[in-house]
Specification:
- The structure is a single chain.
- This protein is 24% helix and 17% strand.
- It has helices at 5-9, 18-35, 42-54, 60-67, 219-224, 236-239, 242-257, 322-329, 339-346, and strands at 142-145, 150-154, 159-168, 205-208, 231-234, 259-266, 274-275, 281-282, 286-295, 298-307, 319-320.
- The chain has a seven-stranded antiparallel β-sheet. Strands 4-5 form a two-stranded antiparallel sheet. It has a two-stranded antiparallel ribbon with strand order 7-8.
């Protein structure tokens, strides 16, 4: 009997069939998802880890962004970073946290409530009411009052859903430097704010709601803008692109008009993706800004709604009626404005007086 040598050895060796590869890939994805707890972007985080492991650096284009990116540095865990990941408290600052500077605040002694009086614009009577610039809130809400801004912290989402402050012309010029400041937990958030480490290797920037550039007249207020209660996860291309462009535009308007009221925040809702190793920080899909100008008898309001993504569209394309932002967020902006005037200001998409 003859045996073909070809048949004798044809079945030797291990061969993966197509279905086996699919099963292995499926289990790889499941393991990757479990590794990151379902709270980060697994593919982005895995790719960052892989690049770090094998020593693959970013492209020249990415390196430019990293070298000039003030939103990610310093990373938690580096020397002299402020955050101490105390297992007993989700938002406690380290014992060596730098104290607030005692330096002059640039001549502004007013609180957020009445700071707009320094603009020189003629105020309406309703502007003089306490907390005029704040959206409506309940006594049970966690309202956090810092020297330069006030916010409502939403512990469910580990960030503020609104930050409000007057922006005066002199506040956006000065010697305050953001490079010497560090992201740190907010000591005034009773429930404990998010930590800087919650953003590490998440693929998102630590994006300011009230930008540091709005407080250049005071190093102390600049420092407070780095509290994590004032930070929200923003896509890098969004944070360093169209969002920064909008912040610059608002400052230009503040210089031109001598002062504005600004309310800004994320659109928060259940079911959002989350990041964070210690806290589940929601990743908003959209952000808004509502801006009010008052110089009696002139008053105007404008609202912006932007997706948390890169865009090359002009800023005016993001203008929406403030009513639309209120419906999305459930927030009632400037409730002390008389109802008939408030309805007139919020119901229409009006760019007159803004982009002139």
């Amino acid at each position: 009997m003859q045996f073909s040598s070809k048949n004798k050895y044809s079945r030797r060796g291990f061969r993966l069939r197509g279905n086996t590869l699919v099963v292995l890939f499926f289990f790889f994805l499941v393991g990757l998802f479990l590794h990151y707890g379902g709270r980060t972007k697994p593919i982005v985080a895995f790719w960052n880890d892989l690049k770090s492991l094998v020593g693959i650096g970013p492209s020249s284009r990415d390196r430019v962004g990293e070298e000039h990116n003030p939103y990610k540095a310093p990373e938690p865990g580096q020397s002299e970073d402020v955050a101490t990941d105390d297992e007993g408290s989700k938002g406690s600052a380290s014992s060596d946290e730098p104290a607030a500077s005692d330096e002059s605040n640039g001549g502004r002694e007013e609180t957020v409530e009445n700071g707009a009086a320094s603009s020189g614009n003629k105020r309406f009577d309703f502007e003089k009411k306490p907390d005029f610039l704040l959206p409506a809130f309940k006594s049970s809400d966690e309202i956090v009052r810092h020297d330069g801004y006030v916010l409502r912290y939403r512990d469910q989402y580990e960030q503020a859903d609104w930050v409000a402050y007057p922006l005066l012309a002199f506040e956006i010029t000065g010697d305050a430097e953001r490079d010497q400041e560090r992201f740190q937990p907010d000591p005034l958030v009773e429930s404990g704010s998010a930590l800087p480490t919650d953003y590490t290797r998440s693929g998102y920037d630590r994006g300011h709601l009230a930008p540091a550039g709005d407080f250049k007249f005071s190093q102390r207020l600049t420092q407070q803008s780095f509290y994590m209660s004032n930070i929200s996860p923003q896509a890098p291309q969004f944070n360093r692109g169209v969002w920064k462009e909008l912040e610059d535009q608002v400052r230009a308007w503040a210089r031109r008009d001598r002062g504005l009221y600004v309310v800004t925040g994320p659109v928060l809702k259940p079911g959002l993706e989350t990041i964070g190793k210690k806290n589940e920080v929601a990743v908003p899909e959209q952000y808004y800004k509502v801006i009010l100008y008052c110089n009696s008898p002139t008053i105007r309001m404008v609202g912006f709604l932007l997706n948390n993504e890169s865009s090359d569209e002009p800023l005016r394309s993001f203008v929406v009626p403030v009513d639309q932002i209120e419906r999305l967020t459930g927030i009632d902006f400037f409730p002390f404005i008389p109802d008939d005037l408030e309805q007139k200001l919020e119901s229409k998409r009006d760019i007159n007086g803004w982009f002139n």
